[in-house]
Design goal:
Structural class: alpha/beta
Number of strands: 5
Radius of gyration: 16 Å
Number of domains: 1
Oligomer: single chain
Order of helices and strands: EHEEEHEHH
Number of helices: 4
CATH superfamily: Peptidoglycan recognition protein-like
Distance between the termini: 45 Å
Helix content: 10-25%
Strand order of the largest sheet: 3-2-4-1-5
CATH architecture: 3-Layer(aba) Sandwich
Bound molecules: zinc ion
CATH class: Alpha Beta
């Protein structure tokens, strides 16, 4: 019997500009803009739980957020805005910013807390990592996220581990505080109990924020 819960989170960049566009809203459950605003997608994470032809969000099966070819079922998709015209010279018109990424990592931690998703390479990963591990899927060869512009010395195969380290730090904070904040709301779906959605993580550098490594 298929487990009816979200199991994984795949992290992307949009390869677009600094703001979420219609394409982003139709493919990712959450998009983090360059100024760290979190934009909810057109469908909630539950839309990626297939169940008897109808997803748990009440949408017909097939009406889900397609963000990770070959790995969409039970998988939440979040994306960081930017990386237009990525190239081997490592120059970008709209590079990912550290503050933006930290907001994204906090968001991933909140989703892990809400859905009981552990932070492991099998459950929290980049699209790049998924493609490497699943070479027969359409995700093979994806390069998001193989570089963090603010940490240029990180090798592509080190980026995922770095991200999981940051997510783990935020998750430890959440579990220490023992409460989840309210979240950005998706467009209402009729006839369905709305699931809890994470709040926009604070971007302040208060004493409760995880230290940001340099
Ligand atoms: Zn992607």
């Amino acid at each position: 019997m298929m487990s009816q819960t979200l199991k994984r989170i795949c992290i992307h960049w949009t390869a677009g500009g600094v703001k979420a566009n219609d394409l982003d809203r139709s493919h990712y459950h959450f998009t983090v803009e360059q100024d760290a605003d979190i934009i909810a997608g057109n469908l909630p994470p539950e839309s990626n739980i297939p169940q008897n032809g109808v997803s748990l969000s009440g949408q017909p099966e097939g009406s889900y957020m397609a963000h990770c070819g070959g790995g969409n079922s039970f998988t939440i998709g979040i994306s960081l805005c930017g990386m237009t015209g990525q190239n081997p010279n490592k120059t970008w018109k709209n590079p990912l910013l550290r503050s933006q990424c930290e907001t994204g990592f906090q968001l991933v931690a909140q989703l892990c807390a809400i859905y009981g998703i552990p932070v492991t390479p099998d459950t929290v990963y980049s699209h790049y990592e998924f493609g490497l591990c699943n070479p027969s899927t359409p995700s093979a060869g994806k390069i998001d996220i193989s570089v963090l512009p603010f940490l240029p010395s990180l090798l592509p195969n080190q980026v995922g581990g770095y991200i999981r380290g940051r997510v783990s730090a935020y998750l430890a904070q959440i579990q220490k505080v023992g409460q989840h904040k309210p979240a950005p709301q998706h467009a209402p779906t009729t006839g369905v109990n709305k699931p809890p959605v994470p709040a926009k993580p604070s971007t302040s550098r208060s004493s409760t924020s995880a230290p940001v490594p340099r």
